[in-house]
Amino acid sequence: MGAYILRRLLLIIPTLIGIMLVNFTLTQFVPGGPIEQIAAQVQGEGDVFANISGGGNEAGGEELYKGAYGLPPEFIEELEKEFGFDKPPVQRFLMMMGNYLRFDFGESWMHGRDVIDLVIEKLPVSITLGLWSTLLGYLISIPLGIRKAVKDGSRFDSWTSGVIIMGYAIPAFLFAVILIVLFAGGSYWKIFPLRGLTSGEAIFSELSTWGKIKDYIWHAALPVIAISISAFATLTLLTKNSFLDEINKQYAMTARAKGLTERRVLYGHVFRNAMLIVIAGFPATFLGAFFGSSILIENIFTLDGLGLLGFEAAVRRDYPLIFGTLYVFGLLSLIVGILSDLAYVLVDPRIDFESRDG
């Protein structure tokens, strides 16, 4: 297993380089870069995106800067040098990756701070949403899925399936709006706060340890529930189908024939095999909660996390921040995939990835 993990770790570097190369190439054709935005501000033309019809700052945009805005060529050249656009794209990419491999992400153009400091500052919020929503989904979905498999075809299975399908059909952001309307003072009850993960530094610092925990849970409840809804539906049906597939296999029937109770058969024999596919879905579940829904949920609940930070960076074309967060996201995704394989072995030691690779 050690050799397999080592190979997976070594594959992280070329995989990250491939991810960054694709996204770096795409940015060469995106209009409205930082130089265009600065030029628009200098000319007092407001939102740059309302004035740009083509040509990005990284691909054929030089004539646009000098002609459309009427700015001196020296000023444009100075901006290009400051942002590093005076170098060829290949050289910029190689320099960027060399720095990123040392975790040197440079400085954010929008915030004027080191990207790594911003990522570290915002990461706890996104981890909170991803981790707690994933744990909540697993704690509810696995027992419910097992119960539905055991009671397959019953009234319990039918009405819970209806609820699950409704949950799957509702997008996370729409469910978040519904929660706000119902429970955050939108139109009905004001039970939960509308923004942030704490009550503010001044109030939060004066609370006791238990008070801080309650305040944290109180603020995190709605966004975590909103993110969990779609993953909860998918995971429940996955668990049910996995257990249904294993319950009627020969080894389970043999165990029953030996006189074992249904509970012993279910949790002593079926559980380990049925949970393999559920564990395999852990990376997708976690990353979906961490990355997929976090942008919208963080915007809706005004949570200062990586999702909101990345969204603002994309709007402002803050390339160091965009690529820095993308690099962190990609790295975390690959590490979670390795952890998923380790969980496979933990649940079923018979699995040998090294022999499969060989």
Automatic annotation (TrEMBL):
Residues 123-340 form the ABC transmembrane type-1 domain. The chain crosses the membrane at residues 9-26, 123-144, 165-189, 216-239, 274-301, 321-347. It is found in: Cell membrane. It is a multi-pass membrane protein. One of its GO terms (biological process) is transmembrane transport. One of its GO terms (cellular component) is plasma membrane. Keywords: Cell membrane, Membrane, Transmembrane, Transmembrane helix, Transport. The keyword Iron does not apply. InterPro entries: MetI-like (IPR000515), MetI-like_sf (IPR035906). Belongs to the binding-protein-dependent transport system permease family. This is Microcin C ABC transporter permease YejB. It comes from Paracoccus saliphilus. The lineage of its organism: Bacteria, Pseudomonadati, Pseudomonadota, Alphaproteobacteria, Rhodobacterales.
